[in-house]
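Office hours follow-up: a student asked to see two folded examples consecutively, so here they are.
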Amino acid sequence: MSFIKNYIEQQTLNRRSLLLLSAYGLCGMTTAATLGSGVARAAAQNPKIAWSYRDRTNPYWNSIVSGGEAFVRSLGKSTSDLINLINEGSSEKSLSDIKSLLSRYGSEVALAADPNDMPNCRPVVEAVSRAGAYVSTIWNKTDDLHPWDFGDNYVSHMTWSDVGPSEQTARLLFDAMGGKGGVVHLGGIASNNPAIERLEGFKNALKAYPNIEFLAVQAADWDTQKANQVMSGFLTRYGDAIKGVHCASDTMAYGVIEALRAEGIEDMPIVSYDGNPQAVELVTKGKILATVFTNPHWAGGITAALAYYAATGFFKPSAEPKEHREFYGPTTLVTTKDAQVFKTKYIDTNPTYDWKDFWSLGKGQIKYRS
């Protein structure tokens, strides 16, 4: 469990180096005329491949980008050929970095991106489309924004159906609590799709457990240090009334565990989400009851692959059915019963994927609630 303290201490130092990496990836960019949308263009022979994401110090995003690097290597390129656009959770920086990339390379860009929050997805897509470049997104977009409204340039969007899996983890938590007592929920960034859906799943589970008291919910923004502070505040306010903790991500669970340990609490039932290697290890030891794996390595590689192969003309996105433009990624519930077997298959080594088999692990077209 010492890795949690080390993890928290290293985040600030790592972020400094990652910001330098992000700056390096964009250095020397000169302003070029932006190409208008709707103009016929030849397929790019060797497009620049970029991943725009929050923070590689986060194990989830590290797995995402590792998948992107695996895809780049499959092309016979070096890992360093993947351009890292690190936004540190800032939508403004996300959009600014992407625009700078497009200013330098124009239509010769294949971009994989998490827009950081839902409203930012539209300006990102519009900027890419105007430049005649190609983008595939994950997680965050508004319901009224669709790839097929942008021809081929907005290649695809992948998200995960989090309501059901989050409800499953909540039920496991409530059962471990004996069906009674107080529970708190630590959420992600409020405007993030996964934060919204994971809270919804948690609340759905509450309906079947009338003796579980929902004490509080607070956003910790997917951040370990902030989650540590939030949980410390919960303990000060509610004390022994807290009998279980529902976390919307593994990284926040690490902060929760450290806050509990500071109070001498070692056996509080906790569930989390993302299936990060450290969390799976904690599940094998019974320190976390369950997590949900979303296969970020595959997601990171396939999102970059979709943008790249659209840019090179390998396939034409507008000729694909809608279920190939907007689709769910895979989820796997990992519990103490199966964590060791799962760890051997997915954590100790990454399976080999065919990066041209774009939808092999997809779980169908995204469904929107009215």
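And the second, which I mentioned at the end of office hours:
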Amino acid sequence: MTAPTDLHTLTGAYALDALDEDERVAFEQHLAKCEDCAQEVRELTATAGRLALAATMPAPPRLKAQVLEQIAGVRQERPHSAVTALSRTARRGHAMRWALAACVAAAAALGGTTLWQHQQADEARQQAEAAQRQADQINEVLAAPDATVTSTAVGGGARGSVVVSHDSDKAVFIASGMAKPPEGKVYQLWFTDGDQMRPAGLMNPSRASQSVLMTGAVDKASGVGVTLEPDGGSKQPTTQPVALLQLPA
């Protein structure tokens, strides 16, 4: 069993399903309380999934064992007990290298079969970096000195809240307990400007609770709306709003 002080280093192995049962249980208990590790797992899982799109043939049954043998020498650093922002960044970069090393080992185990290409790996890395930048922007709005919030019931026990920072001209929509949209549909966010509504981003249809950085400037918007739209969103609302919130002054 990995010691508790080593759990921070298991994000890469967890994302690649390379932990034994005891390690997985211990890490998932830790994951529920550690947002840094949760963010790393999300990024690494997305990266691994993107790289897997380049697979050209089914993996042989012994692939997992072969990968683990080849990456056994990849060294992971033990985190300090007091984790600073700099050390979190270093761990994230180390874990990302761990995942990429596993993909390289998998390619070698397949005897030269191309599992991923440089361009695809670069795209996956850029997507992870973009996700991190958006998370940072959300945190900046939530922590802004002038941040104000308004909330409303959305239906079915769900709630929606909007946090606005007029100084940064940004808003974050926070959903809790949203019902899954019907197949082929997505929740779309809107800023209301008088009688007009302008698109402000799409919600993730697979997540009941999430925080979304709304696209576009808050400017003089008086409120926020949520509608159910076709996949990809609409230029103008096509359904009645499932939620309307007045923006805090």
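Two things to take away from it. Residues 4-142 form one domain. The beta strands are 148-155, 158-165, 170-176, 185-193, 196-202, 210-213, 223-230, 243-246.
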